[in-house]
């Protein structure tokens, strides 16, 4: 039964490829969004400027991790001028950065329709536009802060957690780059400044963020401190799939997938036993009453087609489920 083994192999490989998808997509996990309460009128020059700046951000992202723009199409008044920037996390590839920005801009447009300004932070990237200039200006306003709950699944107890966390944050503040990573045992930290800051401003912003993060999160197993122009985060679980209840989502997806794999394996075994039985008997009992008995080749061919379409619909299902769990984790 070489054909069947091949099919099982292809199926399982596909499942893992699909499973691998969410983790490469976790850069698009949602962190925060803000829209200005003021709206612009549709059909105005302001709207054209917004569309133009969002397009510029998307077009620029494949080749750089940071860029900023000032857009005023001909005829714009001072109040119509729009400023915008994007910043990808420093460890993203150009292609991941580009995907992240594309996704961020789409979501920003959908969530803040007709807003004068808006900002969106995803796991891997940030976009913002406004008619008030914020480019090159340090801003240490707290935009989003979050601390993990202290629970049984924590790797380290209170004192060790704090010691390791403070060591990681201390290391981060001793670095010079816009993007910084560090770790102690399982505790990892990550920091990112917007690249429109000078390196001194970046340092100042991160110091503020680190101080606030320590104060806010105490012995929590993870914490996030997002200021307007920089952020610091630490976690016992790294930064690939974590966003609050991310771990549960991953486990659930895994459980569902394992269930499906075993279900399909049983189905495939069942089908192959069935077709073997049919082959052995030579003629099918059920079909013998039908006047035209299909040839053996045709039967096998039909079997394969059914199997393919079953596998295809299951793959489709797994894919849909992944989309659902991804959406839920936002
Ligand atoms: C931004 O747009 C609003 C609404 O048109 C306007 O009142 C405000 O003055 C603008 N801000 C700047 C800095 O131009």
From TrEMBL:
Quote the subcellular location field of this record.
Answer: Cell junction, Plasmodesma; Cell membrane
The regions listed as transmembrane in this protein's record are 254-274
Q: Does the keyword Transit peptide apply?
A: no
Keyword field contains Lipid metabolism: no
Q: Which GO terms describe its cellular component?
A: plasma membrane; plasmodesma
- Give the membrane topology, semicolon-separated if more than one: Single-pass type I membrane protein
Example GO biological process term?
defense response to bacterium
Signal peptide feature range:
1-20
What keywords does the record list, in alphabetical order? Cell junction, Cell membrane, Disulfide bond, Host-virus interaction, Membrane, Repeat, Signal, Transmembrane, Transmembrane helix, Transport
Domain named Gnk2-homologous: residues? 28-134, 139-239
InterPro entries in the record: Cell2Cell_Antifungal, GNK2, GNK2_sf
Q: Do you know which PROSITE patterns this protein is assigned to?
A: GNK2
Q: Which PANTHER family match?
A: ANTIFUNGAL PROTEIN GINKBILOBIN-2-LIKE, PLASMODESMATA-LOCATED PROTEIN 6
Spell out the family assignment given in the record's similarity comment.
Belongs to the cysteine-rich repeat secretory protein family. Plasmodesmata-located proteins (PDLD) subfamily.
Q: What is this protein called?
A: Gnk2-homologous domain-containing protein
Which species is listed as the source?
A: Lithospermum erythrorhizon
